[in-house]
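Pair request: fold both.
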Amino acid sequence: MEASEGVAFVGQSRAEIYAFTERVLVAQQYAAVGKKERGSVRRYLSKMTGLSLPQVARLIAKYRKSGKVEAESYRRHSFAAQYTDGDIALLAEVDRAHERLSGPATRRILERECQEFGKQDFQRLAGISVSHLYNLRRSLRYRRQAAVFELTRPTPVSIAERRKPDPRTVSVSKHGLQLISRVIL
């Protein structure tokens, strides 16, 4: 190990490094050797794989615990969906009918639909929080169902109308003072 200080070895992939580490630990009978030999194996693995000593120690801990050195698959934590596609469609329908009111007003409508009018379709939506209502409105499923397209309305005032100025108009200066222009005869 001391003679190869200038030489560095690095594994190509994580799977290759883990497999090499496991082979070395099995071949050297890591669990049965003394403390001095374990340190040598650790340094050897660090040198050959390019991993730091703490990283090698974690791999060895995996090996001692399970007898294998394998990468753990990553599983992102996700919460169970509380509101179904039908609930989102119902929310979109209510928003279209009421022209998309504010969150608290919409929540109250959903609550009343369930409690006062006895509509069981609104059972889950009756207890929704206002913040989660806005989260549902931002979801892709909601936006696809609630899309309302309106034609562009024409402007009632023509923008580039040319006409002679009226001298009797009142204008306001930038200081808020009213200036009245007078007609000189």
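--- second member of the pair ---
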Amino acid sequence: MELLTKDQFRTLVKAMKAVYAQATFLPDEDAVKVWYALLKDLDYKTLSGAVQRHMMTSSFPPTIADLRKLAAEPKTETMSELEAWSLVRAAVSNSTYYSEREFAKLPPLVQKAVGNPANLREMASMDADTVNSVEQSHFIRSYRAMVDRDNKLAQLSPAMRDLLESTSKIMIGG
């Protein structure tokens, strides 16, 4: 991935200023510098697509957060909650003896929502009605939170994600 150059960013700024002609939108060089500093970790193609989508769908000027969110969208596609649950349900059916193997087969986001192989093994020992109601509800709530967290993290720069990850390890004691 090639990072955004200042010249490429200036091209995008010209396009945005042509569409959003308010005097308060990127009013001076200092504002342009701040925007560039907060968007320069993105590649030109991704950011250009985000700018174009925003200009085609909003009559209001974008914020940096708007553009980062749009730029992150293609990277954050996930399966539905029920699709994810169906994978967990299939893994539970084989987890009395093979929970480690079944857990390893799950996609990373589903693994985060399940927690660990012991949780699969525990669900395998429960009656089916409890698994299909209570445990499904717990999983869906957890999965939804994981998807939301990943979507928000995808909007941040790699440096900011690294900072948050290192901070959380310090807080957890890892």
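Observation on the second member. The chain has a mean pLDDT of 91.
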